[in-house]
Amino acid sequence: MPQTKVIFILLFLSGLVSVYAQQKISKRQFIADSTKIVKPRLVRPQLKFDSRLVFFNGQKLSISGGDVGVLLKNKLRVTLGYYSLSDKLTSLKKTIDNIEYQGQYNLNYGALNLEFIYKNTRFFSLGMPLEFGFGYNTLNYKSITDNLETDKESGFIAKAYFGLSGTFKPIRWIGLKGAFGYRKILYNQLKNFAFDGVYTSVGLSIDFIEIITDYRMFKLKKRYRKNANAVETAVDLITD
């Protein structure tokens, strides 16, 4: 047999062995790799979409927004957020030249969000959120009959939110988050406009590290158990 053919066959067999070795790993290697994958992270990226319900003189108002940031050691969540509100205020009315006007309020602000997680299990976590918001708000009045508007009052606003929160995690990387607390206006250039009161919040939080961890574990288990069903493996990872 020519030398070149021998070399070709040896290279071919060596390639097969290499591919097989990559696909199949030992139990010891699987345990070592999986332990490394699921090792707790110091920093975990976070994303949350938020819908808040606030109350003003008995009226329900909706504030929408979200935040992005990190979770440190699974204990302290630090994020930056943005929120907005635009709605009529049914309790604010005035009459001008025998025409009735109703308040129209707009609020836009950025926020620094902190949350101390004091209880964290597989399916539930409990925390104490604290938020400092800084932004801009406007107030004007619009006639009920013909939409005539008064001049807008506008100015800087600073506020704080604090309360209690709970998160249900049916899947490790998706959480349904609820919160209840109180909002306090620290400063507002709109004079004689008190906006303190209770709030509730419902949001959807996403943990990117858990998504990456599940994907890496899925690939590792496929290498360890070559004949494992892909769907079954994925379901086990998601629901564990």
Describe what you observe in this structure:
This protein is 25% helix and 57% strand. With 240 residues, the chain is an alpha+beta fold. Strand 3 (76-96) and strand 4 form a beta hairpin. Helix 2 (27-37) runs antiparallel to helix 3. It is elongated. It starts with a helix and ends with a helix. Mean pLDDT is 80; it is low at 5-22.
Secondary structure layout plus pairing:
Layout: H1 3-23, H2 27-37, E1 43-56, E2 59-72, E3 76-96, E4 99-120, E5 124-143, E6 153-171, E7 174-188, E8 197-207, H3 208-224, H4 230-239
Antiparallel strand pairs: 1-2, 1-8, 2-3, 3-4, 4-5, 5-6, 6-7, 7-8
Helix pairs in contact: 2-3, 3-4
Question: Features of this protein?
Answer:
about 240 residues; single chain
- Tally of helical segments: 4
**Structural class label:** alpha+beta
Range of strand content: over 45%
Number-wise, the strands total 8
Helix content: 10-25%
Give the N-to-C terminal Cα separation: 56 Å
Q: Order of strands in the sheet with the most strands?
A: 1-2-3-4-5-6-7-8
Quick structural gist:
With about 240 residues, the protein is α+β, with helices and mostly antiparallel strands. It has four helices and eight strands.
